[in-house]
Amino acid sequence: MITPERIEQVARVVERAGLNEGTVSALRESFTEIHFTYCREDDIGAGTPVRTASGFNLYLVDGRGHCMRLTDDREAATGLVLAETVDDD
Predict the structure, then answer these.
(1) Is the pTM of this model over 0.85?
(2) 1 neighbors 74 (Cβ within 8 angstroms)
(3) Angle CA(58)–CA(52)–CA(85) in degrees, nearest 5?
(4) How would you write the pLDDT of the chain (89 residues) with one tens digit per residue?
């Protein structure tokens, strides 16, 4: 389970530090109970972000089975995908 408070904590860290490998590494060290994946938004095939922000979206991941999958269920969530967005302007 990933609480709304934990999602907000992660989002605040990324908003302050920016989304990059260093930030994701720091998140992995700070929130050891959560699996983090970093990718670009266009790598996400389907799904609805649990949180959007300038420069990134957060998606919930269910990793309880042998395959990871996106989920909308915070109770089933074991990880977060941090998907970098790019402005087209």
Answers:
(1) yes
(2) yes
(3) 80
(4) 999 999 999 999 999 999 999 999 999 999 999 999 999 999 998 889 999 999 999 999 998 877 889 999 999 999 999 999 986 54
